[in-house]
From TrEMBL:
GO terms for biological process: chromosome condensation; chromosome segregation; DNA replication; sister chromatid cohesion. SUPFAM superfamilies: P-loop containing nucleoside triphosphate hydrolases (SSF52540), Smc hinge domain (SSF75553), Tropomyosin (SSF57997). The keyword Cytoplasm applies. Residues 507-629 form the SMC hinge domain. Required for chromosome condensation and partitioning. Residues 325-422, 451-492, 731-765, 794-898 form a coiled coil. PANTHER family: STRUCTURAL MAINTENANCE OF CHROMOSOMES PROTEIN 3. It comes from Jonesiaceae bacterium BS-20. This is Chromosome partition protein Smc. Gene3D superfamilies: P-loop containing nucleotide triphosphate hydrolases (3.40.50.300). HAMAP family: Smc_prok. Belongs to the SMC family. GO terms for cellular component: chromosome; cytoplasm. Residues 956-978 are annotated as: Disordered.
Length: 1216
């Protein structure tokens, strides 16, 4: 695998599309400073996923986009594509060539692609991680990175090796697992809190569930008694409805009879009233005729009296009329004669007109009578026809109803037979198969028992596993505490005790004084107190070294430092002196301190030095013993077990503020021992947990199988119960269907009988109607002919009246003209001879009046005779008409009284029927209310309610006196299946008492949570589920811990191997780069390879320095190169990129580095940015990067032949 091509578009100074084709071996990129060579390195790092802006030598990521120059504007994006030859399959992808593309837009958006397919940055990092390429990018050595390697912390150096070893992905897996563990810990805490909360809620909810169960029992009792009471009410109401219907039916029949009789009487009354109405005008006319004749007679008598009186008056002496007025009188006579003639004509014409008017009135009266008679006859005919049609329609409807009911009864008979067949089939299906049921019940009971046993075993196994996991967690916590304590103690020991501990790193220092003793726990305080400040002093072998140490930088930084070295032997105390003093003291625990401790070093001079320090120190038990010893022998120094020191002229009480090195070392040993014990305990617990886990899995598997089998049996049992229930329901439905069919047939037969009876009654009424009235068409035609003749006569009378009226008006006008002429003549006579004329006129008037009065008197006498005869005839006719009218009125009165009586009877019966109907409606509404109440309160059909809870249904009660106790109990326990029962009759009072008592008890329970049972069950299931989830989380946590352990083992193994190989290669490479020098890699914590950092020790030839900061610039660069090359050789990568790494090297060191490059070229591809000619000479291809005045980088390439390394003519030159 090697880099094949690199294509840049808009990346930094490469504004135009630029393609660099690399070759296996060494490719050297050269060019002036600032031309953009390092941008090639940045492009390689950027396309492989580099996210550090500072690594790319920028301030923000968009700085990688071409920013523009004075001649070319800025671009909107940067894109780099890197093509890798994957012929050897080093990359885990099925392509021989892999092209990685990264694009950045100026608005901040970015895209990644692998072979043109969009992907994530993580995908590119995962793809490259298996080849040793990671986020540290140790294969790309940029400018200044060599010094960064030297300044790196030990852990940073460790990261280079881990990246080369390919363990970063394992680190990521571990980090992911640890994040999951951290998140899981929160889930565990939340689950524990939830379980605690659920356990707290289960208690009150259980009580609520118990109350709800008790409420359910009471509610069931209330429901049962309420349904029985409602069924009783409904049954009673239905009986009342049936009784009222029969009573109402009888009332309606009576009402119908009364209405029929009333209709007949009203018909007769109407006929009589009609006849009376026809005769009433005749009687009235007779009365009017008599009245008119009497009035005329009175008028004639008055006229006769007036005429007699006028004759008497006119019979006196006439006026003198001697004057001759013959001509005038003659003329006047002629005029008057003409006027009289006109008057007579007017009178005659008026009489003719009156006669014509009277004739017209008579014709009109006759026409009205005829028309009324015809109208009445037509009404009777129409009423008869309507009655016949109505009765015929009713008869037809009744016949159709009879036929329909007959067909319905036939159909119901067929349905009844089919219902009986279904009833037999349902009865057969409802008969249970007892042997099969017994076998299934036995299997179910055995399965339930086995399932209970398996659940108990599973819970026990889970409890044991949980307890073991808890013990493991506690042991792990103790292990972590012990490890932390050991690390803290070890850190304290590494840094020493006191400020002079830093001097232990100076050459020639053996160690601190206290670090050279191994003392038992009881003497550690005494030893530290006896040595006092000398315990933190450092030891060296000679005076010159002690002086060097005191002049070292560390000592100068301390300001004050104590260094011990062997001097001249001090005078030793006589052993007998010490022995006598101890014998005189009498303390069994007293003795020389130096004899009771052991030296950690076997150096003779060091042992002598330490023995001289403690030769006069005696350990005693108490301060009193110390006082006695020093008093008897002042040359000795006494120290107690508590650390108090007493000598001649000195008393020092010991109050240590912190533990000393001895105690720290002892505590460290105890902590290490505790770690070993806890580790063994953890291994035992893990083995036990694994075994228990396997057992839990086995129990769970067996339990699941048993649950499956049990569920199958339960399903079969439930299916059997459902089938039996369905068969019973079908049987009950079949029975109800048969009963309903019987009831329907009976009702249909009753309706058929009623319909047949109604049909017979209708036929009888039709026959009676035909007999009551027979239409006479001849009479009707005669009446119409008579009306036609009367209409013709009436028209002729009207015409005659009109003509007479016209003639009368003409004669009246002529008479008026004659009268005016007479007046004119009279005025003339009056003007000539007033006196004569008045006399003559008066005589004439008297004469005429007398004559007229006599004529009137004669005519009146004749008229009175005739009128008397007419009055007598009219009186007789009137009396006869009045007698007939009285007889008709009396009959009509009797008929009206009978009709009124029947009408009152009908009204009373109608009111009674209406009341019955209202009562029936109320009862039906009551039945409907009860039915609705049955549906609304109990969701039960009314018929089913009466059938199942009616008064005829016995009440099933448990036998014995425990019924009341069970009813009063609050346990809510269900009755046992084999409890004996008795059947009791219905007693409404008892049921009302049971209903009221249960309602009161239900009310005393207070507010009930109806969902308590479901909530309790759900909460209990949730509690069990959460408990199971908690166990699963603990198991998952254990699995993650195991995964972390496996990852740590793998990382430790991979790192250990890579570190060993890198350390070996570093020693070799350092020796090659620094002939005669020595370099090595060391772990700063060898006991913890997972966390230990890496230190670099470099000693060039002839130098004793160990600190890298003391090396020269070139040496530092070579050391960093040696470290990186060691990594390259230990874990080769497909390619390496180096940016001016040899810039600080002289020619000799450059040659050594080039030799290393030659070695790297054997297995890897090298891309080197350089200014060195010798580096160019060993390269296989050259790329020259230039930049003109426009600020845009361009590239030219040159492939070199192995035989022409000194710069032949270019084979080809391409400017891109």
């Amino acid at each position: 695998m090697y880099l094949k091509t690199l294509q840049l578009r808009g990346f930094k100074s490469f504004a135009s599309a630029t393609t660099l084709e690399f070759e296996p071996g060494i490719t050297c990129v050269v060019g002036p400073n600032g031309s953009g060579k390092s941008n090639v390195v940045d492009a390689l790092a950027w396309v492989m996923g580099e996210q550090g802006v500072k690594t790319l030598r920028g301030g923000k990521m968009e700085d990688v986009i071409f920013a523009g120059t004075s001649t070319r504007g800025a671009l909107g994006r940067a894109e780099v594509s890197l093509t890798i030859d994957n012929s050897d399959g080093a990359l885990d992808i099925d392509y021989t060539e892999v092209t990685l593309t990264r694009t950045l837009f100026r608005n901040g958006g970015s895209e990644y692609a692998i072979n043109g397919a969009q992907c994530r940055l993580l995908d590119i990092q995962d793809l490259l991680s298996d080849t040793g390429l990671g986020r540290e990018m140790h294969v790309i050595v940029g400018q200044g990175q060599l010094d960064a390697v030297l300044r790196a912390t030990p852990l940073d150096r460790r990261g280079f090796i881990e990246e080369a070893a390919g363990v970063l992905k394992h680190r990521k897996r571990k980090e992911k697992a640890l994040r999951k563990l951290a998140g899981m810990q929160g889930n565990l805490l939340r689950l524990a809190d939830l379980l605690s909360e659920l356990n707290r809620q289960l208690g009150p909810l259980a009580r609520q569930a118990k109350a709800a169960q008790r409420a359910q029992v009471l509610a069931a009792t209330v429901r049962d008694s309420g349904m029985r009471l409602l069924a009783d009410d409904l049954n009673t109401a239905q009986d009342q409805v049936r009784n009222h219907r029969e009573s109402t039916k009888h009332r309606k029949e009576l009402l119908q009879t009364s209405e029929t009789e009333l209709a007949a009487i009203r018909s007769t009354l109407a006929q009589r009233e009609h006849a009376a109405a026809l005769a009433s005008p005749q009687s009235a006319a007779a009365g009017q005729t008599v009245a008119s004749l009497l009035g005329q007679r009175e008028q004639l008598r008055n006229l006769q009296t007036l005429a007699t009186e006028r004759l008497r008056h006119l019979g006196s002496a006439p006026v003198d009329d001697a004057i001759d007025l013959t001509q005038i009188r003659q003329q006047l006579e002629r005029v008057k004669a003409q006027a009289e003639t006109a008057k007579q004509q007017v009178t005659q014409a008026r009489q003719t007109a009156d006669e014509s008017s009277l004739t017209k009135q008579v014709r009109e009266q006759e026409l009205r009578v005829a028309q009324l008679e015809l109208t009445n006859y037509d009404k009777q005919t129409a009423a008869h026809r309507e009655r016949i049609a109505q009765l015929t329609s009713q008869a037809s409807a009744q016949r159709s109803r009879v036929e329909t009911l007959t067909a319905e009864i036939d159909r119901l008979g067929v349905e009844l037979r089919a219902a009986h067949e279904r009833l037999e089939l349902a009865r057969t299906a409802a008969t249970p198969d007892e042997p099969e049921n017994q076998v299934l019940d036995a299997q179910l009971e055995a399965s339930s028992q086995h399932l209970v046993e398996l659940r108990s075993a599973s819970k026990a196994a889970q409890a044991e596993l949980s307890e073991t996991q808890q013990e493991t967690a506690r042991a792990q916590a103790r292990m972590a505490a012990a490890r932390a304590k050991a690390q803290a103690l070890e850190l304290s020991l590494q840094h020493g005790h006191g400020d002079s501990a830093v001097l232990t790193e100076v050459d020639g220092v053996v160690g601190q004084v206290l670090g050279q003793f191994d003392a038992p726990d009881s003497l550690q305080v005494a030893l530290e107190s006896a040595l006092a400040h000398l315990g933190s002093a450092v030891i060296t072998s000679e005076l010159t070294k002690a002086i060097e140490i005191s002049r070292s930088e560390q000592a100068q930084d301390l300001g004050t430092a104590t260094v011990l070295f062997p001097g001249k032997s001090a005078p030793r105390l006589e052993p007998e002196l010490v022995t006598r003093a101890l014998e005189a003291l009498g303390d069994q625990q007293a003795g020389r301190l130096v004899e009771q401790v052991e030296l950690a070093s076997d150096l003779p001079w060091l042992a002598q030095l330490l023995e001289e320090l403690l030769q006069d120190v005696i350990v005693v038990s108490t301060m009193q013993m110390a006082t006695t010893l020093v008093t008897k022998e002042p040359r000795l120094t006494a120290v107690t077990m508590a650390g108090h020191v007493l000598s001649d002229g000195l008393v020092r009480l010991w109050t240590p503020l912190e533990a000393g090195p001895l105690r720290l070392r002892s505590e460290l040993a105890d902590a290490v021992e505790a770690q070993r014990e806890l580790s063994a305990e953890l291994e035992t617990l893990e083995l036990k947990s694994q075994a228990q886990g396997e057992r839990v899995k086995e129990c769970t598997a067996v339990l699941l199988d048993a649950q499956t089998e049990h569920e199958v049996l339960v399903g079969q049992t439930q299916e059997r119960s459902r089938e039996h229930a369905r068969a019973a329901a079908v049987l009950e439905n079949a029975r109800q269907e048969v009963a309903r069919t019987h009831t329907t047939i009976d009702q249909a037969q009753q309706r058929l009988a009623q319909a047949q009876q109604t049909l017979v009654q209708t036929a009888d009424q039709l026959g009676a109607a035909d007999q009551d009235f027979t239409p006479d068409q001849g009479r009707q035609d005669n009446l119409r002919q008579q009306i036609l003749v009367l209409e013709t006569g009436l028209e002729a009378a009207r015409n005659a009246e009109t003509e007479a009226r016209v003639a009368l008006r003409g004669l009246q006008e002529q008479f008026a003209g004659q009268t005016q002429r007479v007046s004119s003549t009279e005025r003339t006579l009056h003007s000539q001879e007033q006196a004569v004329e008045r006399a003559q006129q008066a005589n004439r008037v008297r004469k005429r009046r007398a004559e007229r009065a006599q004529s009137v008197l004669d005519q009146a006498e004749i008229a009175l005779g005739l009128l008397e005869q007419s009055i007598q005839g009219a009186l007789e006719a009137r009396d006869r008409a009045q007698q007939l009218q009285q007889e008709r009125d009396q009959e009509i009165m009797q008929l009206r009284e009978r009709a009124e009586h029947l009408h009152q009877t009908v009204r009373a019966n109608v009111d009674i029927v209406h009341g019955d109907e209202l009562r029936l409606t109320v009862l039906e509404q009551q039945v409907e209310q009860y039915a609705n109440k049955s549906i609304e309160l109990y969701a039960t059909d009314p018929a089913e309610l009466v059938a199942g809870y009616g008064p005829h249904v016995p009440i099933v009660e448990p036998a014995g006196p425990q019924t009341a106790a069970a009813e009063d109990s609050d346990s809510g326990a269900e009755p046992q299946g084999d409890e004996q029962t008795v059947l009791l009759g219905y007693n409404r009072q008892e049921q009302e008492e049971i209903y009221a008592r249960s309602k009161r008890k239900l009310a005393t329970l207070g507010k009930i949570n109806p969902l308590a049972l479901e909530e309790f069950t759900a909460l209990q299931e949730r509690q069990e589920f959460l408990a199971a989830q908690l166990e699963d989380l603990r198991a998952s946590r254990a699995d993650l811990m195991s995964l972390v352990t496996d990852i740590d083992n793998r990382v430790e193994q991979a790192f250990s191997q890579a570190y060993a190989d890198t350390a070996a290669q570093f020693t070799k490479v350092f020796a090659r780069l620094f002939p005669g020098g020595h370099g090595q890699l060391t772990l700063d914590d060898p006991e913890n390879p997972l966390t230990s950092g890496i230190d670099i020790e470099a000693k060039p030839a002839g130098k004793k320095v160990k600190r890298l900061s003391l090396l020269s610039g070139g040496e530092r660069s070579l050391t960093a190169i040696a470290f990186l090359v060691a990594i390259f050789l230990a874990r080769p990568s497909p390619f390496y990129v180096m940016d001016e790494v040899e810039a600080a090297l002289d020619d000799v060191n450059l040659g050594r580095l080039l030799a290393v490059f030659e070695e790297l070229r054997q297995n890897s591809q090298l891309i080197v940015i350089s200014h060195q000619k010798r580096t160019m000479q060993i390269s296989d291809a050259l790329y020259g990067v230039t930049m003109a005045g426009d600020g845009i980088s361009t590239v030219i390439s040159q492939r070199l032949e192995p035989r022409n390394l000194e710069g032949t003519e270019p084979v080809g030159e391409v400017a891109v």
